[in-house]
Specification:
By secondary structure, the protein is mostly beta strands. The chain is 13% helix and 33% strand. It has helices spanning 35-40, 116-124, 130-133, 147-150, 179-186; strands at residues 12-14, 21-23, 27-30, 51-54, 59-61, 66-70, 78-79, 82-88, 104-111, 114-115, 139-141, 145-146, 157-162, 165-171, 197-199, 208-209, 214-219, 223-230.
Length: 235
């Protein structure tokens, strides 16, 4: 028995300080998980967490130096969202918040790039968000740093600059739902398995970028990444 065409390669993320690779299974994202960002998006309060997903091959890994992300088609309003990313290393269902750290393999920093105009149109029509969130190269990601090096990440500056000007500047301690609470909620609905990534939400300051812009950001104690927005890909 053989594949009818070559199987796509396994999506992977580099491991900081190593030649090892972290095989990626699924990418889960938490929506509106910082109060000030929820407000800038027209919401407020501590609503129950909600989730959306990106395909694993939406990853754009940026282990060192500057990666390039082509400006995606179909949008005139591409937004950046800097996030702490949690890498799962142990399988589990119905995980408690207290038990969540034992399921964490490590952490990274990532960008949840968003075609905001297409997302907004889908919302108005009551349709799914994939067209705004799950496109090619929509998940730039740094190297993954093992939890043994970082310790459990419960606080630390999260920041993003565009062309040297600060756009986002907050602290992961300001999450509405902590990493452990997020894992608890998510594992009620999905079995988390080694290789899953969880983008934990973005602070206030999201805004549009255009081709030629350089995005630099990170989470203190975890890592950083630098991404240039390239012209749209050509056929």
């Amino acid at each position: 028995m053989a594949y009818v065409f070559p199987a796509p390669p396994q999506a992977v993320a580099p491991v900081a300080g190593s030649t090892d690779l972290f095989p990626v299974h699924r990418i889960y994202c938490v929506g509106r998980n910082y109060e000030e960002h929820a407000r800038e998006m027209g919401f407020s309060g501590r609503e129950p967490p909600f989730f959306f997903a990106k395909p694993a091959d939406a990853l754009l890994t940026v282990p060192d130096g500057t990666g390039e992300m082509p400006y995606p088609p179909g949008t005139q309003n591409l937004h950046h969202e800097m996030e702490l990313v949690v890498a799962i290393g142990r399988r589990g269902r119905n995980i408690t918040a207290a038990g969540a750290p034992s399921h964490i393999w490590g952490y990274a920093v990532g960008l949840d790039m968003t075609r905001r105009d297409l997302q907004g149109e889908a919302k108005k029509l009551g349709r799914p968000w994939e067209i705004g969130k799950a496109f090619d190269f929509s998940a730039p990601l740094s190297s993954v740093r093992p939890i043994g090096q970082t310790g459990e990440v419960t606080r630390g500056r999260i920041w993003l600059k565009v062309n040297g000007a600060t756009r986002q500047d907050s602290d992961v301690a300001k999450m509405i739902w902590s990493v452990n609470e997020t894992i608890e909620h998510l594992s009620r609905f999905f079995e988390l398995v080694p290789g899953d990534l969880i983008f934990t939400g973005t602070p206030e300051g999201v805004a549009a970028v255009v081709a030629g812009d350089v995005l630099e950001g990170g989470v203190d104690g975890v890592g950083a990444l630098r991404v240039k927005i390239a012209p749209p890909a050509q056929d």
